[in-house]
Amino acid sequence: QVQLVESGGGLVQAGGSLRLSCAASRSISRLNTMGWFRQAPGKQRELVATASNGAGTNYADSVKGRFALSRDNAKNAVYLQMNSLKPEDTAVYYCYAVRLSTEYWGQGTQVTVSS
Q1: pLDDT tens-digit map of 13-53
Q2: Sheet containing strand 4-7, strands side by side
């Protein structure tokens, strides 16, 4: 079992930055995949960025060059640095992890970008 707790969401103006954090309840070095998804009102949940062991980091086209996924194994945490935010980035952001083919989700953190 893996618990994921997100933090760092909030309200920001377009062009601004936010950094999301996700703390895992166990060593992230034992997780096959970690990353972030988001869900905007009335839309399906979509991938933002994921990093898999041995497979590098994958970004949605809409965030490439603006968002960066990083991890700190010592703190069992992953981060999403979001720069040049746009109103269309407004969504609930969910931390995501996979271990031994089982998926885990955090409770989500709201990011709102005002124009």
Answers
A1: 999 999 999 999 988 888 889 999 999 999 999 999 999 88
A2: 4-7, 18-24, 77-82, 67-72
CA distances to 20, 47, 48, 59, 103 from 75, rounded to whole Å, are 14, 24, 22, 23, 21
Query: How far apart are the C-alpha atoms of 90 and 106, rounded to whole Å?
Result: 18
Sign of CA dihedral 59, 64, 66, 68: positive
Provide φ and ψ at 30, rounded to 5°: -95, 5
Question: Residue 62 gets which letter from DSSP?
Answer: T
Query: Which tens digits make up the pLDDT trace of 74-91?
Result: 999 999 999 999 999 999
Dist CA 16 CA 83 (whole Å): 6
CB proximity list for 67: less than 8 A, separation 6 or greater: 48, 49, 59, 80, 81, 82, 83
Give the confidence band of 113 by pLDDT, cuts at 50, 70, 90: very high
